Amino acid sequence: MNSTWIILGATSAMARAFARAVSAEGAGVLLAGRDDEDLAALAGDCALRGARFAETAQFDARKPEGFAALLERLEAEEGEINAAVFVGSMPEQAAIDADPALIDGVVTDSHTGPARFLQMLAPVMEARGGGTVVGVASVAGDRGRIGNYVYGSAKAGFATYLSGLRNRLTRAGGHVVTVKPGFVDTAMTWGLPGMFLVATPEAVAGDILKAVKKRRNTIYTPFFWRYIMLIIRHIPEPIFKKMKI
Amino acid sequence: MLWKKTDYTGWGRALTATGEIARPERRRALEAILTDGLVPAIGMRRSYGDACLNDGGRAIDMTRLDRMLSFDPKSGILDVEAGARVGEIAAAFAPKGWLPAVMPGTGFATVGGCIGQDVHGKNHHHAGSFCEHVVSLTLRNANGVVEVSPEKTPDLFRATAGGLGQTGVIVSARLKLLACKGDVMVVTERRIADWDEFLARLDTSEATYTVGWIDATATGAALGRGILEEGETGSGLIPKRVKYRKVPFDAPKFALSGPVVRMFNNAYYRRVPDTGRTVVKPISDFFFPLDKIHDWNRLYGKRGFHQFQCVVPLASAPALRDMLDLIAGSGLASPLAVLKRMGSGRAGYMSFPMEGYTLAVDFPNRAAARELIRRLEAKAADAGGRIYFAKDGLATGSEIVSMYPEIADWQREVAKADPDGTLATDLVRRLSLRSAS
Fold this sequence. Notes:
The structure holds two protein chains of two kinds. By secondary structure, chain A is α/β, with parallel strands linked by helices. Chain A is built from nine helices and seven strands, in the order βαβαβαβααβαβαβαα. In chain A, helix 2 links the parallel strand 2 (28-33) and strand 3. In chain B, strand 1 and strand 2 form a beta hairpin. In chain B, 55% of the residues are buried. Chain B is α+β, with helices and mostly antiparallel strands.
């Protein structure tokens, strides 16, 4: 199949595992991010694992002026165009408390930056009559908590955006998968206290690929986070507001 | 967080270390860590003993720097990061007609680990050791980033091959892959009645890949009985799919007690018809038979286990038979016991291989087994043989110097590469490798 994936934030551990998984199936991959050296290493790896082609591209959620060139490169590929969004940033809440201006960056990285790119991509996907968008949101977006509510609110906004985009692309034969990972074994969680049931990036990537094939709408990965979050969402607010979880 | 404080072990789980581990996901992160001083690198921790431990100190987990960077089909040279696993390389390249030239018994071993132990495989008698197929490698040590190759920096290369990571952090390597027919193995299995037949078969085997499973519980006339497996790569055949399983918890003590092992070994021996058979297997199944049972080391319970592996010169075969006799008589062995003939190929000062026979046997971690292993190690030394650092967790320094006659050359290069000695690991300290004379 002549499919192409653009992967935004391709140097993250989850994105790397996903890029490898679609490469092994023969898709072309356009690996977009900021660290050129690391992207080049990943491109070599994807090509050797079977990608139809593997190229790198610059993507910085805070520099939308670069989006048009990226889109143009993508349009040059024939066949189905897919996008997977792994970008986001999570400074410690204490750092944000000290400097509230950091909120703008978090919201741009985790929500408005990628949303703006997807908004530009949507007409192309509609014109081609297919393709899938994978958007990585977070369980942190399901309810605002004291520890990371700025990050959580950005991811919640992104999840709502994805839901609307799904509503739109479905009409043109396209699809959107919203992914809500729990704890994943990445550089972000390495050595953090209180981690439990940590999933490997490979397992998460496998879940995402399965969800793409089955055209699932929203997945939690690993699956049991659906039930954990179901409980957390249903704790009455008068109680929840006093909890620290 | 950059550093995670944790308890960790080698594959045998008998020895434990506590310390801080960083796991960089990109080269830049690795470089940032090393600007504060050298830290020993570890991989998948498939060494059984303490080669991959640094108790009370720090270590860098290299497993996320695991990318295959480029491949030249004309020369067959693959550029790969040190954290890549041999099994992943095999899986990606076998369908294209290439394999790592040397593969150890587990596909989970990293390229960096294979270099640090100069590992051997089932084709050692033809292909030599892992590092004989390393064209060049990138090392980060006290002198910065250094390109190392057998031609341009022969001394440093020989100190790095099998050098237990003491010459620097191995960042990436250029491996010369071996052309193969395809991604399946055609394997001939036959029963071997006793020790003498085993050696005779190993001596005359013409197969590319050869390995012998030995029943280390059989005594008397059956001493040394086992199964010889001879394999060639093939293509166009469809083997049965491999099912992966996991050992979900630490097994109780009786799981590998004497009677259970004897029963298992007997059944395992009789599994192959006495006329022999030829079967088709996926390559991973032949090269990495135990990898399909994840965490199989838990079968030994929470006390863990030790593996004894030595090699003795061809002429010392009778001494090896005596050692097997001692093992069989002790009733302590587990089902996992392997006999192979080795060629002379080795790439480093501290490489394990020598022309001769190598025997590897697992033992549950008990006082009697530790005592037995110490006796076996002394016997290996007397026989002019060697023990393997990838497996050892019990030897003492005085035995090692006679086994590794080039140790002074290695120490000289190591002192240049890591003058402060910060790369030392538990194994290096236990055996005083950097100072022994």
